[in-house]
Amino acid sequence: MIKEREEKRNLFSILKSLAREGHFSLALTQDSKVKIEWGEETFKEKLGFLPSSLPPEPPPSLHPRSQKKFKAWWLDLLCGKSVVSDFCFLKNRKKEIWIRAFGHPQADEKKKKIIRITGFFQNVTREKKLENLLKEKEAFYRRIIESSVEGFFQSTPDGRFLKANRAITPDSWI
């Protein structure tokens, strides 16, 4: 029984830290201002700013290539759409940090107006680095195959060509 209580206590502390780490809830006031219900630490730590109105101005740490996407994400939320998007932030103006933002709007049933946005942020920097590395490797091996003097091809089981490099052409079959 004591062991079960300790396990539950550990589980609650883990859940509490996870909730603190990335979740947020924003209430929208009549004048389009924002009241952070919970998750102030999330905004400060993950994004480096606190929104005061919606859509907010892009935070200073947001990478320029993510600015359009950031504005579109907020506008989709304000139109009543649940959205997920990835944004690049610059930590100390150097290191790229990738954040995946999940957002869900909640509307006032009577007025059909968005009154709250809830969601969470997830650090996906590692996944983005791996994704980019995979793209680089794929491009590297594709260049090797495409520029090879040896013929490489992919076909269906019945012998129909799907892909082939330049070395396999009708002229090279003679």
List the helices and strands and how they pair.
Layout lengths: L1 H21 E6 L5 E5 L1 H8 L19 H12 L4 E9 L3 E14 L4 E11 L1 H23 L5 E3 L5 E4 L10
Antiparallel strand pairs: 1-2, 1-5, 3-4, 4-5, 6-7
Report on this structure.
The protein is of the alpha+beta class and 174 residues long. It has 2 domains: 2-123, Beta-Lactamase (2-Layer Sandwich); 130-173, no CATH class. Helix content is 37%, strand content 30%. It has 4 helices and 7 strands; from the N terminus they run αββααβββαββ.
Estimate the mean pLDDT confidence. Answer: 80
In helices, the fraction of residues equals: 25-40%
Radius of gyration: 25 Å
Report the order of strands and helices.
HEEHHEEEHEE
Point out poorly predicted stretches: none
Distance between the termini: 81 Å
Identify the CATH class of the largest domain: Alpha Beta
Number of H/I helices: 4
Per DSSP, what share of the residues sits in E-state strands of 2 or more residues? 25-35%
The third-level CATH topology of the largest domain is Beta-Lactamase
The CATH superfamily of the largest domain is identified as PAS domain
Lateral strand order in the biggest sheet: 2-1-5-4-3
Major sheet summary line: 5 strands, antiparallel
Tally of domains: 2
Shape: elongated
CATH architecture of the largest domain: 2-Layer Sandwich
